[in-house]
Amino acid sequence: MNHAALRQELIDTAMDMNRSGINQGTSGNISVRVDEGFLITPSALPYAVCLPEDIVLMDLEGNSQGCRKPSSEWRFHRDIYRHREEAGAVLHAHPPWCTSLACLGREIPPFHYMIAIAGGASIRCAPYALFGTQALSDLVLEALEDRKACLLANHGMLCLEKDLQQALSLAIEVENLARTYGQALQIGKPQRLGRDEIEQVLQKFRDYRQRTLP
User: Fold this and answer.
1) I want to staple 55 with a disulfide (CB 3.0 to 4.6 A). Which of 7, 18, 150, 162 is the partner?
2) Which stretch of DSSP H or E encloses residue 169?
3) Domain-wise residue ranges, the chain
4) Beta-carbon contacts of residue 154 (< 8 Å; ≥ 6 apart)
5) pLDDT tens track of the chain, all 214 residues?
6) What share of the chain is helix, strand, coil (3-state, %, to 5)?
């Protein structure tokens, strides 16, 4: 079996995703890039009983290998790897606060400087399309332009990062932003940061990443 250790890491990350509270049951899906394409969690199999051999290997043409069917959302995983060279892992989940905003069709605006962790001045909300379809994948790619995370209308949240652990960390941070924004809306109208202020934060984040690189 190829990529045995990475398959197990994928399962462990999926378990951590559910333990963190940002996903429930088998509703989410995670993938990681490999030379042949990507590894992705299988369809409808609880992570607690998932074994390394249950993880599905797919190429960038959409062909799969393994004893299980890939997640029904494999199309936007494939398309992200095709169009975003920096993407090493993709995580999709249904976090309660992100999903609440997504059901309202609302993006997360620059109400807090940490919004820049997703790459820009907002976390956009992609319009609704049926799950598992190419239409949804196309809308996701648009919402992710110059971003590392987006909401999916009436659905959930998606993010990409360099590896599995960073993808999970980003997903947790996006959910925290969604929760804080939702709570602020209950009190009043949150103040928004300006474009220049967000650009300053983005530059700070770029400088920080450069300092932490080996």
Assistant:
1) 7
2) helix 164-187
3) 4-212
4) 102, 103, 105, 128
5) 689 999 999 999 999 999 999 999 889 999 999 999 999 999 999 999 999 999 999 999 999 998 999 999 999 999 999 999 999 999 999 999 999 999 999 999 999 999 999 999 999 999 999 999 999 999 999 999 999 999 999 999 999 999 999 999 999 999 999 999 999 999 999 999 999 999 999 999 888 766 655 5
6) 45, 15, 35
- C-alpha 60, offset from chain centre: 18
Closest CA to 73 of 28, 103, 36: 28
**Cβ proximity of 123 and 174 under 8 Å:** yes
What whole-number distance in Å separates Cα of residue 183 and Cα of residue 195?
Answer: 23
Q: What are phi and psi of 203, to 5 degrees?
A: -65, -40
Question: 119, 120, 96: which is closest to 181 by C-alpha?
Answer: 96
Alpha-carbon distance of 88 to 5, in angstroms, equals 16
Amino acid found at 22: I
Active site residue 36: no
Query: Rounded to an integer, what distance in angstroms lies between the CA atom of residue 211 and that of residue 214?
Result: 8
User: How many residues make up the chain in this entry?
Assistant: 214
Q: What is the pTM of this model?
A: 0.95
CATH topology of domain 4-212: L-fuculose-1-phosphate Aldolase (3.40.225)
**Active-site choice (9, 36, 53, 73):** 73
